[in-house]
Amino acid sequence: MTNSVTFPTNLGGDGSTVTDDDNATTGLGNGGHRTRFVPAMGQVVAVANVLTQRITANSDTSSSSVAIGTGNKTFTTAGFYEWAVGMWVTITSGANPANYMFGQVTSYNTSTEALVVDVDSVGGSGTLSDWTIALSAYNPVGSYLTAADIGVTVQGYDADTVFRDVQNNFSKQQYFGNVALTDASTIAWNAQTAQVATFTFVSSNRTMGAPTNLVNGAFYALAVIQNAGSNTLTWNSVFKWASGAAPTLSTAAGAKDYFTFRSDGTNLYEQGRSQAVA
Questions:
Q1: Stretch 165-179: mean pLDDT, rounded?
Q2: Which of 80 and 259 is assigned the larger pLDDT?
Q3: What pTM, to 2 d.p., does this model score?
Q4: Strand order of the sheet with strand 186-187?
Q5: Nearest to 194, CA basis, from 170, 235, 222
Q6: Which CATH number is 59-135 given?
Q7: Distance CA 75, CA 61 (A)
Q8: CA quadruple 34, 36, 42, 47: dihedral positive or negative?
């Protein structure tokens, strides 16, 4: 029985065949080994090199002339990698990586090395032929963030550094530094813009109104400062006191009373208080 070996072109061979018989064209017998054995070993090495590249590679190259754009794009590869349907790849220009295409493998022909990629996002422009094709992580269409996504898709830190938005339990709460509340007969407290607030008496007794824009689960802090001293503060009923009764403020000029609260979205429940004399 005659045995034969063919060195396939898709694995780096030249397509030639050698046999162990006396065939005048392919045989190693009857002296044929003198002219065919060494070339056959060369083909073994060539195929082994390609197989080694494919085992260790995670990329390929292509000199196909392809225009950057979305949709199906076909590349004839160098055959360094066995691509599988469903793989995500990035196809990048060797001269300028800013020119690229990203998509998913839809077909790969191991005989012709033809690779078809369904491109769904691109960078740059032009028709190029210096491609490197590499395995890539999945990144769905439309997942690239733009300025319009800030505050909608993602929360972001504001460039003016005055405040930052964070996501609370059910709604957005803006965190600020210590904000001075405006003196008035009834003091207004917008909790969204003043989570930490200070009120300083000017000269008269005042009423602390119900804070607006409270967030369920959020904590708030308030400092009350006497000016000349002995002013009183009447508290709205949304303030709930641990002792059951509103506190008596310090009366000395310059004295400070500090309060912390936790909100249920409507009321403020006292968590602690302290007093200090300036």
A1: 52
A2: 259
A3: 0.40
A4: 186-187, 206-208, 233-235
A5: 222
A6: 2.40.30
A7: 9
A8: negative
- Give the residue-averaged pLDDT of 216-220: 91
Strands 172-175 and 186-187: unpaired
Domain boundaries, the chain: 4-56, 59-135, 148-276
**pLDDT band, residue 119 (cuts 50/70/90):** very high
For the segment 153-171, the average pLDDT, to the nearest whole number, is: 48
**Average of per-residue pLDDT values in the chain:** 85
> Which tokens go with 124?
């740059």
Q: For 212-217, what is the mean pLDDT? A: 92
DSSP collapsed to 3 states, the chain: CCCEEECCHHHCCCCCEEECCCCCCCECCCCCHHHHHHHHHHHHHHHHHHHHHHHHCCEEEECCCEECCCEEEEEEECCCCCCCCCCEEEEEECCCCCCEEEEEEEEEECCCCEEEEEEEEEECCCEECCEEEEECCCCCCCCCCCHHHECCCECCECCCCCCEEEECCCCEEEECCEEECCCCCEECCECCCCCEEEEECCCCCEEECCCECCCCCCEEEEEEECCCCCCCEEECCCEECCCCCCCCCCCCCCCEEEEEEEECCCCEEEEEEEEECC
Q: How far is CA 145 from CA 69, 112, 122, 153, 155, in A?
A: 20, 38, 14, 8, 12
With cut-offs at 50, 70 and 90, classify the pLDDT of residue 55: low
Q: pLDDT at residue 142 above 80?
A: no
